[in-house]
Design goal:
The chain is α/β, with parallel strands linked by helices. The chain has a single domain, classed as Peptidase C15, pyroglutamyl peptidase I-like (Aminopeptidase). Helices cover 29% and strands 21% of the residues. It contains 6 helices and 9 strands; from the N terminus they run E-H-E-E-H-E-E-E-E-H-E-H-E-H-H. Helix 2 runs parallel beside helix 4 and helix 3 (118-127) crosses helix 6. 43% of the residues are buried. The mean pLDDT is 97.
């Protein structure tokens, strides 16, 4: 049976939970379009996150890999377009590392584009009533580190697709950040199930506007 690998992160930046793992772990063992979903928690640590991710890819040989991360302040589910080859940490990771202007892969390309059908995913999410958009940046913290590293790893596995999705705070987190948007865990779970199904079914992306003016 084919496998889908979904990952989330442990809490960081003073939060007691990370919505990515709180939701992703609920998908463990699900079957979607004939594929079994396997989940892994990644540490919010430069380097170590990719060690854990790469080991899971080697173990499972997944057809589809979607890494999920928290983007506090974003209003919707954002499907990332591109990961760039730089770590530039505004805050320390969970073991105190704070790299500045450091390449993720010393001899790697400047960027890797997601191999997910990102616009088809966004369209399907919106059709289901889930706020969603294409994002043009995954930041320069551990989320981007994982996205770039994931796509670099999958470049040697042409049969596999992969990418990254950012999600907002959970309501209980937003309560501690007055004015911050949030999304219920059940809505995020629905969104990720839809994203998996579209990722498995859609061989080419749709032509639709997903750009930004700034």
């Amino acid at each position: 049976m084919r496998t889908v690998l979904m990952t989330g992160f442990d809490p960081f930046g003073g939060e007691s939970v990370n919505p990515s793992w709180e939701v992703v772990k609920q998908l463990e063992g699900m079957h979607i379009d004939g594929c079994r979903v396997v989940t892994r928690q990644l540490p919010c640590v430069f380097g170590e996150a990719l060690t854990v991710l790469n080991a899971a890819i080697d173990e499972l040989d997944p057809t589809l890999v979607i890494a999920v991360g928290q983007a506090g302040g974003r209003v919707d589910v954002t499907v990332e377009r591109v990961g760039i080859n730089v770590d530039d940490a505004r805050i320390p990771d969970n073991i105190g590392q704070q790299p500045v202007d450091v390449a993720i892969v010393a001899d790697g390309p400047a960027a890797w584009f997601s191999t997910l059908p990102i616009k088809a995913m966004v369209a399907a999410l919106r059709d289901a009533g889930v706020p969603a958009s294409v994002s043009q940046t995954a930041g320069t913290f551990v989320c981007n580190h994982v996205m770039y590293g994931l796509l670099h790893k999958l470049a040697d596995k042409p049969g596999a697709k992969g990418g990254f999705i950012h999600i907002p705070y959970l309501p209980e987190q937003a309560a501690a950040h007055p004015g911050a948007p949030s999304m219920a865990a059940q809505t995020v779970k629905q969104a990720l199930e839809i994203a998996i199904a579209v990722g498995l079914r859609q061989t080419t992306d749709i032509k639709a506007t997903g750009g930004a003016t700034h």
